[in-house]
Each structure stands twice: as structure tokens, then as C-alpha cells.
Amino acid sequence: MLKKAFLKLTDKQQKVIVDFYINRKSVKEIAEEMGCSYSVAIKHKKRGIDKLKILLGEKMYLLTK
User: What are the structural domains, with CATH classification, of the chain?
Assistant: First the structure.
């Protein structure tokens, strides 16, 4: 279920979320790797998380608890 929802994110949203939450990189590092500004990397992260919340609904709450 999580994998299916995750695959519905854009490639950039996936990269930011994996790098930030799993690889423990800073947003600054991620932005540099992606060749974008810090604020754009933050937007990708926020939009990805927002989309996961919509797709997973209450299950997202359980994952972040």
C-alpha cells in the first residue's frame, strides 16, 4: 500500500523524501544534488508528503506516529 502510493509521486518528490527521511540528507544537500534552490526542494518534499497523506488517509497518521 505504501509502495503503491509512493510510486504515484513525481520522481523529484520521491527523491527528496527518500534522501531526507531515509538517507538523512539535509534539504540543502538534496537541493544541490538536484540542481535546484532550497525552496524548490522544500516544495517537492511538502507536496510529496501532502499527496501521501491524501492517498493513504488515516494510514499516514499511523506511519508518522
Answer: 2-64 (1.10.10.10)
Question: Cell for 24?
Answer: 538523512
Q: Give the model confidence (pLDDT) of 14-63 as tens digits.
A: 999 999 999 999 999 999 999 999 999 999 999 999 999 898 886 665 55
The pTM is what? Answer: 0.85
Report the candidate in 46, 41, 12, 10 with the shortest Cα–Cα distance to residue 26. Answer: 41
Cell of 35: 540542481
d(Cα 29, Cα 32) in Å, to the nearest integer?
5
What does the alpha-carbon distance between residue 64 and residue 15 come to, in Å, rounded to a whole number? 19
Q: Which residues contact 13 (CB under 8 A, 6 or more apart)?
A: 44, 45, 47, 48, 51
